Structure prediction request, 466 residues.
Amino acid sequence: YQRRVRGSSGINAEYGLKEDTQAVELLRCAALGLCSLSKSKKNKRKMKSSGLIQHLSKLITLEVETILVPVVATLSECSVDPEYRAAICEGGIIQYLSKFLESENQELVSHCAKAIFHCAEDDLTRTLIRQHNGLEPLVRLIKFTENVSMLDGVTGAIWKVAIDRENCKVFKDLKLCESLVPLLHSQPEEVMINVAGSIAECAKIPENIEQIRKAGGLTHLVNLLSGTNPTLLINVAHALGKCATEPDSATIIDKYDGVRLLWSLLKSPNPQVQSSAAWAICPCIDNNKDAGEMVRSLVGGLELIVSLLKSDNREVLASICSAVANIAKDEQNLAVLTDHGVVPILSKLVVAHAGDEYVKGHIADAIGRCCIWGNNRKEFGSRGVVKPLVRYLKSKDTFVYKAAAMALFHLSLEPENCVVMHENHAKQWLVNMVGDDDWILQEAAAGCIANIRHLALANDISKSGR
Prediction:
């Protein structure tokens, strides 16, 4: 049927009916037909080229409920396409989607929420939802837990609009997180995926973390780590990682076995699950007073971390390098990492990923942290790490050149490494960093230059026989 309608230009005929605002029943039937047709990808392309959004933007202004339901359902179906989303935003439809969230018709509200869920992938839409007062209705709608379809759409919409930090501030005042926490259990997985994603985004604001903690959200999140749904695990790990930036929350996560469960996710065959778990582990270590002992209690944990440095996935590499940098703050754990071969692996990575701005900053950070044990800085030098790190100083990414400078400072405590730095003109880049606003970078750069100069001076004295 869909193929026959498309082939016979039936779609364009239905558009003609919609222009007659008096023929409400005909318009309703036309809208229902479009809603059905929009489930086909081929039809979506045909309707897009025929100006579907322009017509729907006129129909939606009629605010006739029997027409609105299929119209918004069509928008929801089509908004998975980025080009449709742009047209919906440009067509002024977002203000109506926000307005209809106040409707008593739950089917219409459900379609509005799902359309917002798709459209809010874009920055402008997230801003428009706030400007058109769509945030407060979304929070109020959470209480309708018996309508699973609507709850799925509403929580999904909240998740995506919460990506905007300003929206998170509004949600803080509305105490959204207190309402979300009870939905972390006894709900369908699709709802809990959205809720965990919403909590992860809201946790950008410290006050929201406090709301989550006081509402008992951390224990529910930790319990969800025992699940098997990859998307849910990713969102839960993100949420726990954001919450763990607050020391009190990090303590609770550890108390309820959250760190061990996160560590177990590193064994997942899914790279996204691995990386989200590794990123979450970092603040759990950083904000735990007994982090060293906590990590040592995980049997085989450090060996697993080192093995993941061989991953082909750049997100996994970046997150695991960050985890290594945090773990290496404890000397005993760094000694174990060294025994498992962390130095030769990082030495290979620093060259292999020299062109990847995202990964190489984390590699440099890990190298710097691993220098403080035994002969590691000497071994790094013998494995050719210094020269590529000097090149890292030329990066325009602040994190990359800062991490490189820190690593070079630690490496410069080994005289042979200073020779390589001097030969590769590290000083000309380090001099500029001495005047940086970041005092940590200033000290690292100045210390590195001082070590290079001391070696040069000692070499001059040796040559002169004095």
